[in-house]
Amino acid sequence: MTQICSGVLTKPDTLGAGAINQRRKWVEIIEGRSEDHTLRHGFYCVRLPDDAERAQHLSRAESQRRAAEYFDTTSPWNDVTDRRRFGIPGFVSDVSRLLIQLIEEALPRLREDIDKLLAKCIKEFDALPPPLADDPQIEVLGRVNAFCDVFKSFVNGSHEDKRLAQRNRALYAIFKRDIRGTAPDFRPFDTPEDYVPLDDTEERMTLTERDPGVKVMGIYDIRRVIHEAIGWELPNNVPYQAKANLIAQFTKLWVAPSERCLAGINDVLGEVIDALISIHFGRFKVLEDYVGNLIRNQVDICKARAQEAVKTALDLETTPYYTQNTHYLQTLREKWLAHYKTVRIRYYHYRARPQPAIAECYESEAEGSYEGLTAGNYEREAPSRVHPRSETPESKALRALAEAGCDGGCSSLLPRCLQARH
């Protein structure tokens, strides 16, 4: 409104004849010559009826006539050239003209704004769903059934939106990786830190992300666990408690990955549930709040049951430490024992830092240094000895027996085989 900014001076008749300076300042303000009081459209001066005149109930025309007579006959007001600056009629006329000008300038913008608002209103009207054609109870039941059907399709992956299945599969892959990362890091040497990890019997895989709770273990560490568990067992009998202690070191690490996986799945489920509630019940806000709370309460109950089921599954992995997959256990046991024996024999291939001196020793070792070595003592002496570049057939046979896991009893048959060959 700065475009119509104007000032009005009232009650000029209160300035007596002796208020010369005040009257002069008023004239300067009215004529626009004052530096302290400046407005875009200047100032106006009006005289309003006093108490005596109001008591006479004068008409508007009479009041304006007396005011005009006052300004035309009283100094210094009658000396001002611009007579439109005095009286209410001149002030109203000028302000009305300014207002009309502003309205004319604002009309195009107002029309544009009105057109935009009208288009928005029409669009919102068109977006409104059609009125209900069925009974409200039937409508609510239909929406609940539709919600259940769509949610089932999300769960089994038949819906066109695959977010639930895809995100859960990603969480399961992370969970599998985390559980695999809790596998023991056993290296069959006295100084296991000097050798590379043995994460696979076929040496095709190396774990890149291990659980921080998994520590490198060597022969000394296993012996220490066995020693701490020995009670009244017979000699050369590994206590069951030692095996249980070793297994517990790793199964206890399964709790954190399991809880993380379950929490991630719950978050994905919550997002899907909220989206479906908004889609199927969002038209009716009261219904959305009511049904949404019922659904979320039921989901919370299911989450609590899932949490309990995970806890039960983890408890089953504690005592007793047993498995129904005995054939699988036996197969893996034989593979790992054979792999560990091979690693012990070819230990120079598994050092974390290559040592050229070992390879030179390997090439220069005398062929006869392995004479009389059986499969049983070959395994025990392997870490302190190396294979020669050229081996006799007998040495090769003994080494093959050792790598296959045969003990000294198997190697006793080798001389008979040689005699039969000759």
Strand content: under 5%
- Order of strands, main sheet, comes to 1-2
Largest sheet: 2 strands, parallel
Q: Please state the overall shape, judged from the principal axes of the Cα atoms.
A: elongated
- Secondary-structure element order, as H and E? EHEHHHHHEEHHHHHHHHHH
Q: Enumerate the spans where pLDDT stays under 50 for 5 or more consecutive residues.
A: 357-390
Q: Structural class of the secondary elements?
A: mainly alpha
Would you write up a description of this structure?
There is one protein chain. The chain has 422 residues and is mainly alpha-helical. Helices cover 59% and strands 3% of the residues. It is built from 16 helices and 4 strands. The chain has helices at residues 20-31, 51-55, 60-73, 88-127, 136-156, 163-180, 219-229, 240-251, 255-281, 285-316, 326-345, 356-364, 375-381, 393-403, 408-411, 414-421; strands spanning 7-10, 43-46, 185-186, 216-217. The strands form 2 sheets. It has a two-stranded parallel ribbon. Helix 5 (136-156) runs antiparallel to helix 9, helix 6 (163-180) runs antiparallel to helix 9 and helix 7 (219-229) packs across helix 8. The longest helix has 40 residues, at 88-127. The chain is elongated, with a radius of gyration of 50 Å. It starts with 6 loop residues before the first strand and ends with a helix. The model is unreliable at 357-390 (pLDDT under 50).
